[in-house]
Amino acid sequence: MITLALSKGRIFEETMPLLRAAGIEVLEDPEKSRKLILTTNQPNVRVLVVRASDVPTYVQYGGADLGITGKDTLIEHGMDWSGTAGGSGLYQPLDLQIAKCRISVAVRADFDYASAVKQGSRLKVATKYVAIAREFFAAKGVHVDLIKLYGSMELAPLVGLSDAIVDLVSTGNTLKANHLIEVEHIMDISSRLVVNQAALKLKQAPIRKIIDAFASAIAP
Ligand code: AMP
Fold first, then answer.
1. 190 lines ligand 1 (CB under 6 A)
2. Residues 74, 174: one domain?
3. Which of 28, 72, 110, 126 has its CA 20 to 30 A from that of 50?
C-alpha cells in the first residue's frame, strides 16, 4: 500500500492533475465526504486528508509514505531555507510548482514601517510562521516580539495586537480588503513533494514511479 498525505483546498485541487499523470484518480471529494482516508482507482494507493501543517509529521513518522505541502510549512517544520535538508527522515525530491504564493511582511497603510525598522524600535509581529519571521528579522537586525496566531493574521494590526504580520500572499486581495500593505517580500513559496526515506527504500519501485510521473507532469 502507498499512502499519500494531502491537505484540502488549493493543494488538493492542484495535485489532482499530477496524480492523473501517474494514473491515479481519487474516487472521493474531500469537500463533500467526511472520510479522512480516500480511496483511489489503484487498490494499492490511498490518500490521507490532513492539515497542511501536519503533512511533514505524517510523512516523517511513516503514517504516510509521501506528502505534498508548502515550502512555508516545511521550513516551520525544521527544513532550512534553501530546502536542501528536510526534517530527519524526510526526502524532498521535487518542487511541484503548485499552490504558488509568497510570504511577506504587511502593515496598516498608516504605519511607518521604514522608520520603525530604521530606528531600531521593537516591532510587534503577528504570524503563524514564527520560524520564518524570526529568521528574517534576525538577519535584518530588527528586534521583534513574535505573537503566534493560527489564522486571520490580517486582523492583528487592525485591532492593535501587532504592528505587522508575516503571512502568505497570493493575489493581495485579502491585504487590500483589510487596508494592509505589503512592505517586504520574504520569499516565494510553492508546494513540494516529500517522501519518507525508509518507505522509499522499502517500496522503491511504486514510489519512484509516482515521483517520475509527477516530475514529467510539472508545469514548465
Ligand atoms: P490573497 O487574498 O489571494 O492574497 O490570499 C491571501 C490569503 O490566502 C491569506 O489569508 C493567506 O494565508 C492565504 N493563502 C494564499 N496563498 C496560499 C497558499 N498557497 N496556501 C495556503 N494559503 C494561502
1. no
2. no
3. 126
